[in-house]
Design a protein that fits this description.
By secondary structure, this protein is of the alpha+beta class. It has 6 helices and 6 strands; from the N terminus they run ααβββαβαβααβ.
Amino acid sequence: MKLLGAVLLAAGLLSTAAQGEQPPWPDEPLRTCFFQMLSSVDSDFCRGDLEIIYPELGDVGCTYIPKCHRYRQRISREWGSPRVRYPQAEKGADLRTGDVKGHVLTDYVRPMPPPRSGYHRYQLRLYEQPAHEAIALSPEERVSLGAWAMESFVEQFRLGSPVASTQFLTKYYED
């Protein structure tokens, strides 16, 4: 299904070129933008159909973010948080439609890999919250912007294994 999305995106970009329209990015020549799927080692992390949806890109789960059309720059500098969707959620659940509501443990921080540091992984994991279990970050975890021990957090709240997980890789937008 993800491959179909990439094919549809490429077909949409090709049809724009075929119609002789001006490119939507005037500072960049009109060209087709290809999304590369992650290698087998990295793609093993992706399971359960969890989707990360950015404007103009669709689901970027299990892909490298390409530099073309300023996608890396737009993820790092322009776009807000992606829509996260889990189609296998219970019918009527907000997570199924990508309209997630609830108690925010930590605010979204855009991916901002440093220059000349190569690709960085940005991972999302979905856990089922045990019934009647209140989940909260410690004051130290709240101010650390995600630099806390995930394994300890999962163990502390008895979350078990993720129901679904996905990731994308990107690097500094000028590299």
